[in-house]
Amino acid sequence: MDVINKIRQKYDPLSNHVRPHITLVFPFLSNIEYIELKEHLEDTLASLDPFTLKLKDITPVKSFGNYLFLNICEGKSELTEIHNKLYTGILEEHHPQWLKVGSFYPHLTVGKIDNAEKYKFAIEETGAITDEFKTIVNRICVEIIDDNEDSLIEMEIELKGGI
Q1: For the chain, N or C: smaller number of CB within 10 Å?
Q2: Which residues contact 129 (CB under 8 A, 6 or more apart)?
């Protein structure tokens, strides 16, 4: 985590507001009650087991700005399955149109750089990082983004595999 946090401190303007994460459902405004959301997550995630997640290599991505993504090399199919399951039921109406016509690309954002020259430098600097990061995903968190862009954990759902 030290390597990831150092990169984020340098290149991600939200590093002091949001912990490293992989977005499965993109932020939206709603009046969904806590208990409704919790039940939806528990139902859709009930059969899923914890799984290994490996991340390696940082890739520049210019889809919606100048980003640096830490790539997922193991666990991508599990994350995609979770993403697809979550965007059903009460969350279906919050599925962004751009995501319906495109494809979901799970990743961990480690940088967003507005300046083209700094972006080029960041690509060169992070391209030399060869570390592999490994963890076990055993829970899914729901976060609320407050007015200061701080991320607050609203709830956590454990992956138990129907046990």
Answers
A1: C
A2: 3, 7, 57, 58
Closest CA to 25 of 70, 90, 73: 90
Q: Residue 20: its pLDDT value, please?
A: 95
Q: Does the CA dihedral 95-99-8-130 come out positive or negative?
A: positive
Distance CA 137, CA 106 (A): 14
Sign (positive/negative) of CA torsion 160, 1, 68, 18?
A: positive
pTM of the model: 0.92
Single-letter amino acid code for the residue at 74: E
